[in-house]
Amino acid sequence: MPPSTSPGSPLPSEEALRFGLPALDAFYRLHASIYDWTRPFLLFGRAEAVQALALRPGDRVLDVGCGTGVNLPRLHVCGASVVGIEPASPMRRRAAARLVRQGLDGVVELDPRPYGSHGDYECRADAVLFSYSLSMIPPYEEVLEHARADLRPGGRIAVVDFLDAWGPVGMGLGRSHVHLGDARLGALRRLFPGGRAAVRSFGLWRYFHFSGPRNA
User: Fold this and answer.
1) C or N: which end of the chain has fewer Cβ atoms within 10 Å?
2) SS3 45
3) Percentage of the chain modeled with pLDDT above 70
4) Is the CB of residue 55 less than 8 Å from the CB of residue 61?
5) How many beta carbons lie within 10 A of that of residue 175, not counting itself?
6) pTM of the prediction?
7) How crowded is the C-beta side of 195, counted as CA atoms within 13 Å?
8) Cα–chain-centroid distance for residue 176?
């Protein structure tokens, strides 16, 4: 959806456009309320991605594009210090409500800034998680380079996301601002050599799981 240019409607910043935020905000204004009911039928491997981080008590983990916050309690229970990063305001409100319900408000941090737009986490993270979010970030190579810079040497990244899809699933993902293809997996392999990748098929779509350390 193009940004509004009507009088009194502030134009989105260049940075917001670069990260695709106006389109995502418009999309999630309609879909955030049903997200948690519908996505379990599509978003497989999320718990496995959390496990692949091998978190220890005291680790700092960034959940990039945390959405409605489904992974935030899973990360917290490992004893980690958790930051959920979610620039789409309809989804962030859902994540904040989840934290209140689970008694984690003020314990788990929510960051509304687009990931990769600042250097506040540089070399300060022990783990970075992308759970079905990398495919929705247009400047993915820049963002993955940022993740590598944010990780301490030996820190781990884990990504689970769509690879490709056909038929109604492919059309639905396209309308949901999901970018399919193997470019993101290729960038992960380049930036995190030695990481492990697995591709899994589920009928009309395939998804991948990648995890590995930041080598010094």
Assistant:
1) C
2) coil
3) 94
4) yes
5) 9
6) 0.91
7) 28
8) 14
